[in-house]
Amino acid sequence: MNTETSHLTANAAALLGEAGKQRVRAIRSRRWLVYPRAKQVLDRLNFLVDHPRGTRMPSIAIYGDSGMGKTMIMKRFRDQHPPSFDALTGRLKTPVLAMEMTSRPGERRFYAELLTLLGAPQRPRADIAQMEQAALRIMEAIGVQVLVIDEVHNILAGTYREQRIVLNTLRFLSNRLQISLVGVNDAREAIGGDVQLARRFEQFTLSRWAANEQFEILVALMLRNTPLRHPSVLTAKSLRRILQITEGITANIFHMINSVAIEAIESGSERITDEAIEKWEPEFDAEAAFA
Fold first, then answer.
1. How far is CA 156 from CA 68, 107, 190, 192, in A?
2. Which of 218, 258, 242, 267 is nearest to 28 (CA)?
């Protein structure tokens, strides 16, 4: 048995001692890879957490097609800043709070979603002002510094009036609590309805992958993190085919590489070859499986 592991990361190499079934399971599990584009976004998000409180706090809007890895980056960001208990004050600290914009936005539904996330009991007959004050009180008490709103483009499902109200609510929360906002969405026009709010957002776009050095780095990182016993060396032709089949969507690229890697384990070849890339065809649309 080949015990050479220089082609793998330490974590991937450690899996070589496992049976094929366990390695297949590891490949199918979601893995975080620190590729340059994701690191750039994370560095800016971490900047928000460390930013001193003040008026007009900086915010970030992250755009990208479904499957480009926005949700995975947000999960990584939350994991880096988990809630913690302060023994000195006896309080729970939550620097990063993440919520999803409701499918049909409105002020009441927005605050109801926020209070549910905060674990706050809600009175059925509470008016919006009471819900707002409860949310403000709890968020200030737990030290929220960054509010992440996923699926911000759902704002567009509302009427013009509803859109304006929700955008005004976001601006009010940022001003009142002196917190940064992170909007994760597919549509740039979602926050464009409030000029003052939109000006606060630094924009990051997770574009589809193209045939360049960044894509080569991504594939190389994936191969180094895939527990196969032999090195996989792919030609430029194979890289172009990966882009063609996956349409440059991050989730599709992971799905394709993982599928070919599993075939390599099951066949005993223990490497991804140009021939395997050429023969591979998708069984289903993987784009819908990841955000």
1. 21, 14, 6, 11
2. 258
Do the beta carbons of residue 45 and residue 146 sit within 8 Å?
yes
pTM for the model:
0.85
CA distance 38 to 53: 26
CATH 3.40.50.300 matches 36-206: yes
Question: Rounded to whole angstroms, how far apart are CA atoms 168 and 165?
Answer: 5
Q: What is the pLDDT of residues 95-153, one digit of tens each?
A: 999 999 888 878 999 999 999 999 888 777 889 999 999 999 999 999 999 999 998 88
For the beta carbon of residue 123, count every other beta carbon within 10 angstroms: 9
Q: How far apart are CA 54 and CA 145, in angstroms?
A: 11
Q: Where are the domains of the chain?
A: 10-29+225-289, 36-206
